[in-house]
TrEMBL record:
GO terms for cellular component: membrane. SUPFAM superfamilies: Multidrug resistance efflux transporter EmrE (SSF103481). This is Permease of the drug/metabolite transporter (DMT) superfamily. Keywords: Membrane, Transmembrane, Transmembrane helix. The chain crosses the membrane at residues 12-30, 36-59, 71-93, 99-120, 127-144, 156-177, 189-207, 222-241, 253-272, 278-297. PANTHER family: EAMA DOMAIN-CONTAINING PROTEIN (PTHR32322:SF2), INNER MEMBRANE TRANSPORTER (PTHR32322). The keyword Transmembrane applies. It is found in: Membrane. It comes from Chitinophaga arvensicola.
């Protein structure tokens, strides 16, 4: 963005579109792939391959290797963001509609701001941000209200707890990455992916016995989803987000949080044949309004 004119550059627009569409589409990609491959194994395969490719790219472009503290910090962040944060999403979409999972993840800014206030900067959120948090969680309550009678609900509620745990880990990793010694950008992202992939692989060995046997049943659709997740979702999506985080205003970058669930809901309905009832639509609108308020109220 040109600071004088406020005009978005073509590269910034492309990166924003990439994060909007690609990250919004990965929910459906994981949904398709986990029909055959267990979630932990899928995440380990995805990020071990993507991380290996990115590590090679990083070494060729940056020509540096991290110090021990930097390497360990990147591994720790990778376990929080990818090993737990992203893998819990893969686990949840296996049992729940991908669009609804995206709505829960849309509340991520609330966890980041709340944890930053409580444990890091001690900076109290603005009134608009607090209102956004209340509105967002009210929307989620409408969607998952256990006291209401949901005749059309055909999925369990326990994955919601799993996603919340993953969101908390993602928020912690997001806040800690700015406070720990980290390698150069591409190499750091690659190490995070590899560490998260190794963690997911260990979880697969423990909780998914016989998971490797499912690879022989991979369909063409599942392979296409997997390749898309590796090359587009991981490499292009994360690279675009990393560039935006360093070159775009934080409020502009944060807009992905309320665009992603819209994309995920649409793709889940159009391609994944996921039903969008009136209650889901209304709850989604409330959640997205809450995230918009959080983003607008975010202090620079």
């Amino acid at each position: 963005m040109n600071k004088k004119t406020g005009v978005l550059s073509s590269k910034m627009i492309l990166c924003l579109l990439a994060v909007y569409v690609i990250w919004g589409s990965t929910y459906l990609g994981m949904k398709i792939a986990t029909k055959v491959v267990p979630p932990f194994l899928l995440s380990s395969m995805r990020f071990l391959l993507a991380g290996s490719l990115l590590l090679l790219i990083g070494y060729l472009r940056e020509k540096t290797w991290p110090e021990r503290k930097q390497f360990l910090s990147a591994c720790f962040i990778g376990v929080l963001l990818i090993g737990i944060g992203n893998t819990t999403v893969a686990l949840a979409v296996h049992y729940m509609p991908s669009g609804i999972v995206a709505l829960i993840v849309a509340a991520m800014p609330a966890w980041i701001m709340g944890m930053d206030w409580a444990f890091f900067s001690r900076k109290r959120p603005s009134g608009m941000t607090m209102l956004g948090i209340i509105v967002g969680f009210f929307g989620l309550f409408l969607l998952f209200n256990p006291f209401a009678h949901h005749e059309a609900r055909q999925f369990p509620l326990w994955p919601v707890i799993v996603i919340v745990a993953g969101n908390i880990c993602w928020a912690a990793g997001t806040l800690l990455v700015q406070r720990l010694p980290m390698p150069t950008q591409i190499t750091s992202t690659a190490i995070q992916m590899l560490a998260g992939g190794v963690f997911s692989l260990l979880m697969s060995v423990v909780f998914e016995p016989g998971g490797f046997g499912t690879l022989s049943f991979m369909t063409t659709e599942a392979w296409q989803a997997f390749i898309y997740l590796v090359l587009i979702g991981s490499l292009v999506g994360y690279t675009s987000y990393s560039w935006l985080s360093k070159n775009a205003p934080p409020r502009l970058t944060a807009t992905y949080a309320y665009i992603n669930p819209i994309v995920a809901l649409f793709l889940g309905w159009a391609i994944g044949h996921e039903a969008i009832t009136s209650m889901v639509g209304f709850s989604a609108a409330v959640v997205i309004c809450g995230v918009v308020l959080m983003t607008l109220g975010r202090k620079s």
